[in-house]
């Protein structure tokens, strides 16, 4: 039986990362601690701005940690040519995060993000 | 119950009306009990594996040889093996000769959830049903001819079937954004030479490359004319909303410019329910100049259409960027024709011109508005109304912009569908346009609507 981490990694690298508009995805908390495919697997477009993206994302985890227990469900921000989506795992300081192009069809991607979040919650709960 | 049938059958003259009603009830119960349907799903990335899996999961649940197989997938298999491989996979499992139709869609909702990647199918086995599939070629070149071709194949059923109820489900090419030579594929073009040339190029691309508006309204007008006694529901095939291409499935053939349909004659009844999650804003506009078969608004009240549209909404002109396109999903245009509200999604801003998905049949239009709440409410009302028939199977066609607008909130609609449909097999596909007709309602091509059909 694969570990929970391996199962979550399979969801990230098997379900989300292959989608053309997902430049990077991960399940992380503050300081980007958590589970993420290796940075080399991220689409090369974001590598050059990864530093600033990482810093901005980290700021949001403070908000997530503070308000998640009150039902904070999703957070978005737009940074230049990119959108970052946080799908928060209920009542935790951790989120499923995806970086997508600013003009991607976000709604369609959200549906698959939600499917991934549901799978991850199931993996955590059944572990 | 069987013994009762035999005994009473010897004395039909004594109580004819009562006997007839009992016999009809027994026939109805026994025939309906033989109705079997099942929904399948695949989330495989590989085209061949996905084809095999979607067929296997459907047939395993059905447990019988299917009388037809409706198949939809997202566009992803184009780059993961191709649709030839996808259909090969399906036919490795599906019994040879099974009538199959379908196409590519932006996503789908079925008994298992909501998906914007994967494949789904629905199959039915029922003895009191005659089925035929048909195709009409080159819809953009000659939509009327394509509709006639499909109708001809479907009408064969009318001669051979003894059943009264008629239902046609179809998939047809949706509107695409052509790539203008050297200028890429853009949904928002600011003023400039290319936007001025764009209408001429768009017209050219329809004729030469079969790209551009899908002309679905002309197809449904003709289908309604040809198949006047039928219930007809169709969805425009599409990709992941980039609107570069779409595919239709017909037997083991992959089409990209054709209308495909499945005709059913049965002793079951059918119904189609249509709802919009739209409200009228009261912002009315008078079109003073149209172009490209009335698909393009050139002037509103004598002023350039794009600027006037922005001004009526109180939006500044610097809103005119690529993000404007998705903002307009919340503000479609609409007009009433033959008593039916016809919403129009804005397809592209081409300089001063607003390109719409199908021809605008009046000169007066109104800006409508949509919200997440109103869209989900419409889906709930549609589900509530269709289940009053006690359906055996539900097939739905909804606008892909609703899926894009709702995003992950589509699961609120799914919860409603599960509540109303329970274990009834259902499949709702999100398309580039929705078309329908029934003997009590005129042919209509719509956007931003949800349409549920059922056999009951």
Largest sheet of chain B: 9 strands, mixed
Mean pLDDT score of chain A, rounded?
93
User: How many structural domains are formed by the residues of chain A?
Assistant: 1
Q: Give helix and strand order of chain A, one letter per element, not per position.
A: HEEHHEEEH
Derived structural class of chain A? alpha+beta
> Radius of gyration of chain B, rounded?
23 Å
Give the number of domains of chain B. Answer: 2
* End-to-end CA span of chain A: 11 Å
Largest interface: A-B, 20 and 24 residues
Describe the structure.
The complex is a heterodimer of chains A (127) and B (456). By secondary structure, chain A is an alpha+beta fold. Chain A has helices at residues 4-16, 44-47, 50-67, 106-126, and strands spanning 24-29, 33-35, 74-79, 82-88, 95-101. The longest helix of chain A has 21 residues, at 106-126. In chain A, a hairpin with a 3-residue loop joins strand 1 and strand 2. The model of chain A has no long low-confidence stretch (mean pLDDT 93). In chain A, strands 2-1-5-4-3 form a 5-stranded antiparallel β-sheet, with helices on both faces. With 456 residues, chain B is of the alpha+beta class. Chain B has helices at 2-9, 16-33, 47-62, 83-93, 143-160, 193-209, 216-226, 305-313, 324-327, 372-386, 400-406, 410-421; strands spanning 36-42, 68-73, 100-104, 107-110, 113-115, 119-125, 129-136, 165-173, 188-189, 231-237, 248-250, 253-255, 259-266, 270-276, 278-291, 296-300, 303-304, 333-337, 340-344, 346-350, 353-356, 364-370, 393-399, 426-431, 434-438, 441-446, 449-455. In chain B, strands 9, 15, 16, 17, 18, 19, 20, 21 and 22 form a 9-stranded mixed β-sheet that branches. A 6-stranded mixed β-sheet of chain B has the order 1-6-2-3-11-12. Chain B has a 6-stranded mixed β-sheet with strand order 5-4-24-23-27-14. In chain B, helix 3 (47-62) runs parallel beside helix 4 (83-93) and helix 5 (143-160) packs parallel to helix 7 (216-226). Mean pLDDT of chain B is 89; it is low at 1-16. The interface between A and B is medium-sized, with 20 and 24 residues.
């Amino acid at each position: 039986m694969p570990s929970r981490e391996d199962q979550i990694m399979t969801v990230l690298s098997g379900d989300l990362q292959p989608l053309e508009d997902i430049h990077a995805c991960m399940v992380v908390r503050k300081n980007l601690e958590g589970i993420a495919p290796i940075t080399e697997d991220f689409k090369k477009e974001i590598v050059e701005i990864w530093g600033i993206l990482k810093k901005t994302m980290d700021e949001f985890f403070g908000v997530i940690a503070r308000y998640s227990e009150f039902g904070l469900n999703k957070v978005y921000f737009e940074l230049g040519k990119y959108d970052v989506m946080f799908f928060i795992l209920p009542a935790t300081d951790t989120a499923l995060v995806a970086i997508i192009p600013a003009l991607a069809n976000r709604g369609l991607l959200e549906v698959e993000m939600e499917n991934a979040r549901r799978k991850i919650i199931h993996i955590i709960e059944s572990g | 119950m069987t013994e009762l049938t035999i005994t009473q059958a010897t004395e039909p003259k004594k109580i004819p009306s009562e006997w007839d009603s009992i016999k009809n009830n027994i026939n109805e119960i026994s025939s309906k009990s033989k109705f079997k349907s099942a929904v399948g799903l695949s989330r495989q990335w590989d085209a061949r594996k996905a084809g095999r899996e979607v067929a296997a999961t459907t047939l395993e649940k059905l447990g019988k040889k299917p009388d037809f197989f409706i198949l939809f997938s997202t566009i992803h298999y184009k780059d993961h093996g191709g649709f030839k491989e996808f259909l090969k996979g399906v036919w490795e499992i599906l019994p040879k000769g099974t009538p199959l139709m379908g196409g590519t869609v932006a996503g789908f909702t079925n008994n298992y959830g909501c998906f914007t990647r994967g494949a789904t199918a629905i199959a039915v086995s029922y003895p009191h049903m005659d089925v035929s599939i048909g195709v009409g070629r080159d819809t953009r070149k000659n939509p009327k001819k394509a509709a006639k071709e499909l109708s001809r194949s479907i009408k064969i059923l009318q001669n051979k079937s003894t059943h009264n109820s008629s239902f046609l489900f179809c998939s047809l090419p949706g509107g695409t954004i052509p790539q203008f030579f050297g200028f890429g594929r853009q949904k928002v073009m600011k003023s400039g030479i290319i936007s001025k040339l764009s209408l001429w190029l768009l017209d050219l691309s329809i004729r030469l490359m079969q790209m551009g508006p899908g002309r679905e309204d002309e197809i449904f007008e003709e289908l309604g004319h040809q198949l006047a006694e039928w219930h007809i529901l169709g969805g425009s095939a599409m990709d992941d909303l980039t609107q570069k291409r779409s595919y239709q499935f017909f037997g083991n053939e992959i089409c990209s410019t054709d209308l495909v349909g499945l005709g059913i004659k049965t002793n079951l009844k059918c119904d189609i329910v249509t709802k919009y999650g739209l409200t009228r804003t009261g912002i009315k506009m008078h079109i003073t100049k149209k172009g490209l078969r009335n698909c393009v608004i050139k002037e509103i009240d004598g002023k350039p259409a794009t600027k006037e549209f922005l001004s009526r909404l109180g939006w500044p002109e610097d809103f005119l960027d690529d993000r404007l396109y998705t903002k307009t999903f919340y503000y479609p245009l609409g007009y009433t024709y033959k008593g039916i509200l016809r919403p129009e999604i804005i397809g592209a801003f081409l300089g001063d011109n607003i390109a719409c998905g199908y021809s605008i049949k009046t000169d007066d239009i109104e800006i409508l508005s949509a919200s997440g709440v109103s869209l989900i409410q419409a889906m709930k009302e549609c589900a509530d109304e269709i289940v009053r028939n006690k359906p055996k199977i539900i097939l739905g066609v909804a606008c892909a912009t609703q899926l894009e607008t709702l995003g992950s909130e589509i699961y609120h609609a799914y919860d409603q569908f599960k509540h109303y449909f329970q274990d009834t097999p259902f499949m709702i596909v999100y398309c580039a346009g929705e078309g329908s007709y029934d003997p009590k309602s005129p042919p209509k091509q719509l956007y931003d609507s949800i349409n549920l059909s059922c056999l009951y």
